[in-house]
């Protein structure tokens, strides 16, 4: 079966995706467990990593657009989807951390729906949602835990 039609993500993609969750989970938990003097640094690193991953996720759409036929009406959408996530990450890093965190959180949630759009329009592999859904849930939950920590722990 062609990989674009497979319904299960490749094992390597799943393994690397899971490994990519480590900074999200440890950063979120670190905000609750780290001594107060280190919390700002933990949050900065979490936000920086999240912005990097948003750029990476946007680049996937750039690659999908490059695969599209020259006269495809989907390529401009894909190109737009490739630029918006890193721009949101950049904006989030420019904001105070307590405001940047929800921007990044919303960006990840919205990007999931953009990825579903790409699958539904035949420009992303059928297996992509099976990879993205659990990863997105863990990322969004981690960012919610982190945001809660900034509001409660300080």
Keywords, please?
mainly alpha, transmembrane, 0% strand
Question: What's the short story on this structure?
Answer:
The chain is an all-alpha fold and 154 residues long. It is 79% helix and 0% strand.
Structural class: mainly alpha
The Cα radius of gyration reads 17 Å
Low-confidence stretches: none
Mean model confidence by pLDDT: 92
Give the helix tally.
Answer: 6
Helix and strand run: HHHHHH
Instruction: Tell me the number of strands.
Output: 0
Beta-strand residue fraction: under 5%
Overall form: elongated
How many independent structural domains? 1
Largest sheet: none
Helix content: over 70%
Give the N-terminus to C-terminus distance in angstroms: 52 Å
Pfam family, one: DUF3429
Protein name: DUF3429 domain-containing protein
Organism: Halopseudomonas aestusnigri
Transmembrane segments: 12-34, 46-66, 87-114, 134-153
Describe the secondary-structure layout.
Blueprint: H1 11-19, H2 22-33, H3 36-67, H4 75-94, H5 97-120, H6 128-152
Structure description:
The chain is elongated. It has helices at residues 11-19, 22-33, 36-67, 75-94, 97-120, 128-152. It has 154 residues and is an all-alpha fold. α2 (22-33) packs parallel to α6, α3 runs parallel beside α5 and α5 packs antiparallel against α6 (128-152). The chain has one domain (11-152). It has six helices and no strands. The relative contact order is 0.17.
């Amino acid at each position: 079966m062609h990989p674009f039609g497979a319904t299960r993500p490749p094992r390597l993609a799943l393994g690397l995706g899971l490994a990519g969750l480590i900074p999200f989970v440890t950063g979120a938990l670190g905000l609750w467990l780290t001594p107060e003097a280190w919390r700002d640094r933990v949050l900065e690193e979490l936000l920086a990593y999240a912005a990097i991953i948003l750029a990476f996720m946007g680049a996937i759409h750039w690659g999908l657009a490059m695969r599209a036929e020259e006269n495809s009406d989907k390529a401009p959408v894909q190109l737009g989807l490739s630029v918006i996530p890193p721009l949101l990450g950049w904006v989030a890093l420019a904001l105070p951390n307590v405001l940047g965190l929800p921007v990044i959180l919303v960006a990840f949630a919205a990007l999931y729906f953009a990825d579903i759009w790409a699958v539904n329009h035949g420009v992303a592999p059928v297996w992509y949602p099976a990879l993205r859904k659990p990863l997105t849930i863990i990322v969004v939950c981690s960012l919610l835990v982190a945001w809660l920590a900034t509001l409660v722990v300080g």
